[in-house]
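User: Quick one: structure for sequence A, then sequence B.

Assistant: Sequence A:
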Amino acid sequence: MSTKTPLVSVITPTYNRADFIGEAVESVLAQTYPHFEFLIVDDGSEDNTDDVLKPYLADSRIRVFRQENQGQSIARNLALAEAKGEYICFLDSDNYWPKDKLEQQVRLFAEFPDTDVLYGDNVIINEEGCEVSRNNMSRYSGNIARHMIKDNCVAMNTTMARRRCFDEMGGMSGKRRVADDYDLWLRLSARYVFRYEPRYWAWYRVMEDQISSDKTRRFQVNEEIIFDFRKDFPEALSDKEFRAGFAHFYIRKGRYLGSVGKKTEGLKEIAKAIQYDPLQLNVWRALLAVLLK
């Protein structure tokens, strides 16, 4: 494959998303950049996903793999092991892309060759596909570990990453069924250069049955992930940066618990934030905010 037309591997895990996966597939096939392979992993679906995918299999760029239900991280790793592209993209089966997503990103990698991971913003839609919001969290470029330790600012479905990142540091950890995307990008932020572009590169569907919608569980897992990161990559940040990152995490967790009526639990989390960074003004603001709820 020419360096001007590098192969892009698109990876989609799916489980019981027959109602939506057709839209995801169509958005990939509609890409203005045609040099891609599309690896779909059916993670033990029990609906009619097979029937929905069957008409698309005539396209030689599409490969479908099937496994017993083991979670989307294992499914993504299966596809990563089979991928042949110079670049890797992830698309969940209930989301979809604008038609020039791949073309724009390949062009930006050529324009900014020091970039290892490229990402952008989501358009949030509901289960029916209606737009809910275009508001996105703050995102960052460069060596973003000091930001990632506070919160996951990388939108998974918008990313394109160099294949060598996964060859050198591995794919999804598979340790947890929640927040494995955070684990991945946090690990990669220890070594690689990220570039954020303020462009809407994915429509992201929010539904009640999504694992990521369980916010309490997600906070618990994120805490485990940042502790693992500090243990595995102690040189990625200074001690001051680690402490500021942990304090910020406990502020977010404490304020969330306070907002859902769990004031005592919230105050305990704010106390942890104070222990990590007592000179940070935001921890005291958070304390007042939770106390006054």
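Sequence B:
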Amino acid sequence: MPVPLPTDARERKLLLAVDAPSLLHRNHHARAHTRLMDRSHRPAWALHGMLRQIIESIDSFAPDAVIFGLDDRTASVRSDFYPDYKGGRPPKDPELVEQLDRAGSLLDALGLATLTPPGLEADDVNASAATWATRNGWDCVIITSDRDSFAHISEHTQVLRLIDGGIHNSPLLNPARLHAMYGVAAENYLEFAALRGDASDNLPGVPGVGEKTAPVLLAAMGSMQAVWADIEHCEGRHLVATLDDWAAETGNRKVGATLLKRLSAPGARERYEFNVRVMSGRDDLDLPITPEVPGTPGLLPLAIDRVNRVVGHLNVQATTDLAVRVLTARPASQDG
């Protein structure tokens, strides 16, 4: 993970947006063998792992504010629209469910900002955080293990995608790195994902248009809006010619006619538009962040007594010590 600029060298303030359920799921599966219990003898390994990773992230990035997105576990707009959404996933371990249910109160008790949008998910909070940061002249880093957040990458929003190895061994993705991974521009990632589909959410892709052909199509045509317009108004002639020119320039086989046939097949456009609707994150949520009011939830530093009490309840002294050092210290640019 690249070393971020110190706070006094940054031109823009930084918002850290955390996909709390994503981190809790990863830490539950990685740390369940520890059987860590809090001081009330309740399972705490996922909560501790999530909090430890966030403290390490705050130590590395020195953000000015932190917002945690949580899933509404009682209702789902996406499941109402598509009952098979995330179908096929195994039932959650009851010990994970308990820690998911306690995460919001733990973070609130620390003084960090949380948002559980009615009927929505943490990814909607991520999307809104990226929009909030742009609107307010901030930068944003989203921390998640979910690829959905790649759609929010831009000049001022990066995604730290947690993988095995923790915070310091996870890739920090910007538009250039995203393009290197998938061959698509950041602004086209949602279109790419909708064409490809997402098995984890039980969303099939457009038949015959996968991870290899979708980037070629988007690079050649610029957007799916241009693709559909050409098919609708010109019977796809420009699409075929453009893709065949690409094949001639790169030495690849011609794919224009084949792709046109697949995109023109009954249900192809409907599948694509269905996926876009389900995959799109809501970016207009009202975030509970008020940077102009010192001491309000989400702003750093935090009160030392709250950090000692709340993190201490998880019963790992080394993490409590780290939390006190990282979460209660003022950035160097604010020291007198």
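Residues 23 and 50 are 6 Å apart (CA to CA). The chain has two domains: 7-180+283-334, 187-279.

User: Thanks, that's what I needed.
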